[in-house]
């Protein structure tokens, strides 16, 4: 009969044995203590690194010195004193979803966990109240279909975390070396095109993470997305794990039906999309498979170099076959592989479906996509949108990776009234192609890494281009402030990354951008190519307008997309076309 001792019992027995040896005059042989508890896999991985002569990063040392979830009393004490955190604690508090963002703002930003971007009307309104009570009086929708509340004084650090949980929401693990918000198709359950409703799977993954401490403290952050093949994409191919809904045909050795195709290693900031593994996963096994992928990453991810600590680099070093074999070893069974011929072509996305009125699969009902200016909106607007969702919709709101919000379940008869109320808020259900695809990170007004004020410059670019270079086809213009690529500039038709631009020979610089073109996602996935360097911020609107004007004049026909146009020319050819444009 085997006996399983508790941790305290084991420690007692070890002490008893040591004492017995001492009393009998024998010198006890020291035993190599093995890490135990929920952090054991992380500590063992660190030990292997140091045993091999490697040097842990500061972040790995901080995790080991004190796990963030054991440090809540100190966070509460700092809040009581209204004291900002030192660097080690600034890292630890990100496990709770708090980021101290000085010197851009001498305050915290709180990032949430909202699986599949789905909120109830009362949660949406509740967040508006929190932004007013504890934050700066505004909210941001992020490119992970999430919400950030900014300008939170240190004294309100614990207040905001407790209040978020009072709303039935979480911020736990939304920062640092953890699995971030689980995204999914924003129109899940109402999309007439979808193959599967992603909400149950995103929610199951969300709760799996929340309730297992061993899934915190990874070598680096980790992104997971479920795409149900609906009209609005989840950008799953930019994630470490992308579950892509597909239909498998009959007579290919597996039961026909809907599966998730498994894609791994996406990180577009490092110029890589998630790559198809050749594996399909039954939807009800997706969380288990994701868990085992995470366990392999925990054991083998790089803990010595933060720049190389993402899943992509394990895959690059090992290859997919070795990595998947390690996952199978943890699963205790083989993964299901199938040839490309067995999988039906996925339906195309509609790049305009996140803005405006669109019919749902439920006859007589619609979702309304509301344009939020580069993802920013006020508490008053949030409360009013919540009321519109309650009064005219099904009571729910959905956030998208395009930094806007959808109101679902609006009947045909109530569309006009709902739209009128939205417009009365200073928001719109209609947007030009330029503004509908405009994406911007926080920028240097709220992030110390950013080299430019991306949200302000994005608005300036849109306002200028709408009048001087309007276009009639969907386009995505992404502005990101730094190499972290939070706004994913590499996948935009036009991408701008913040830079300090030289302005004289004395070394003075100004805000500006490097400009890229030809990026894409989903069916058009490709990393953008650099077109221009060191464009001053005040010159960026005119430069983008020249790019759009060159496209409009030189496209092969009215149906040629911008990405098709950009990829049809080499970079030198594009520069010549654009430099010939005059916006005078």
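Sequence proposed for the structure above (584 residues):
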């Amino acid at each position: 009969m085997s006996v399983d001792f508790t941790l305290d019992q084991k420690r007692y027995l070890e002490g008893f044995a040591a004492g017995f040896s001492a009393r009998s005059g024998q010198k006890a042989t020291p035993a190599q203590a093995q890490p135990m508890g929920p952090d054991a896999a992380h500590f063992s991985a660190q030990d292997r690194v140091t045993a091999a002569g490697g040097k842990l990063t500061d972040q790995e040392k901080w995790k080991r010195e004190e796990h963030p979830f054991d440090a809540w009393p100190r966070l509460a004490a700092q809040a009581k004193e209204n004291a900002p955190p030192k660097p080690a604690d600034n890292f630890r508090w990100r496990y709770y979803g708090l980021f101290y963002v000085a010197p851009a703002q001498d305050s915290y930003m709180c990032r949430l966990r909202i699986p599949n971007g789905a909120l109830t009307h009362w949660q949406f309104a509740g967040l508006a109240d929190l932004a007013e009570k504890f934050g700066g009086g505004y909210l941001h929708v992020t490119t992970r279909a999430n919400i950030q509340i900014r300008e939170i004084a240190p004294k309100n650090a614990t207040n905001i975390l407790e209040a978020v949980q009072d709303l039935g929401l979480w911020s736990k693990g939304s920062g640092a070396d953890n699995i971030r918000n689980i995204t999914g198709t924003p129109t899940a359950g109402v999309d007439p095109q979808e193959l599967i409703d992603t909400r149950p799977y995103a929610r199951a993954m969300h709760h799996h993470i929340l309730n297992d401490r061993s899934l915190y403290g990874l070598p680096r952050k980790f992104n997971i997305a479920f795409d149900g093949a609906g009209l609005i994409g989840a950008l799953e191919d930019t994630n470490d794990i992308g579950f892509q809904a597909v239909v498998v045909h009959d007579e290919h050795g597996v039961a026909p039906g809907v599966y998730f195709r498994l894609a791994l290693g996406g990180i577009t900031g490092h110029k890589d999309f998630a790559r198809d593994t050749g594996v399909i996963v039954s939807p009800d096994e997706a969380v288990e498979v994701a868990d085992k992928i995470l366990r392999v990453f925990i054991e083998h991810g790089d803990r010595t170099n933060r720049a190389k600590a993402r899943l992509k680099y394990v895959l690059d070093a090992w290859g997919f076959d070795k990595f998947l074999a390690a996952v199978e070893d943890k699963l205790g069974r083989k993964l299901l592989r199938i040839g490309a011929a067995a999988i039906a072509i996925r339906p195309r996305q509609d790049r305009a479906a996140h803005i405006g009125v669109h019919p749902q699969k439920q006859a007589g009902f619609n979702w309304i996509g509301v344009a939020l200016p580069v993802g920013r909106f006020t508490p008053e607007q949030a409360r009013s949108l919540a009321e519109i969702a309650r009064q005219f919709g099904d009571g729910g709101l959905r956030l998208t990776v395009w930094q806007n919000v959808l109101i679902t379940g609006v009947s045909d008869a109530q569309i006009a009234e709902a739209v009128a109320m939205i417009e009365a808020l200073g928001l719109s259900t209609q947007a030009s192609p330029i503004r509908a695809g405009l994406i911007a990170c926080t920028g240097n007004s709220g992030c110390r890494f950013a080299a430019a004020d991306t949200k302000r410059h994005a608005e300036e670019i849109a306002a200028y281009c709408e009048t001087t270079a309007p276009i009639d086809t969907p386009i995505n213009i992404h502005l990101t402030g730094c190499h972290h690529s939070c706004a994913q500039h590499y996948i935009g038709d036009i991408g701008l990354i913040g830079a300090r631009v030289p302005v004289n020979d004395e070394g003075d610089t100004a805000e500006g951008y490097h400009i890229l073109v030809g990026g894409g996602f989903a069916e058009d996935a490709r990393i953008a190519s650099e077109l221009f360097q060191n464009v001053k911020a005040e010159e960026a609107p005119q430069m983008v307008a020249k790019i759009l004007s060159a496209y409009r004049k030189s496209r092969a026909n009215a149906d040629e997309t911008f990405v098709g146009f950009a990829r049809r020319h080499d970079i030198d050819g594009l520069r010549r076309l654009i430099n010939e444009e005059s916006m005078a």
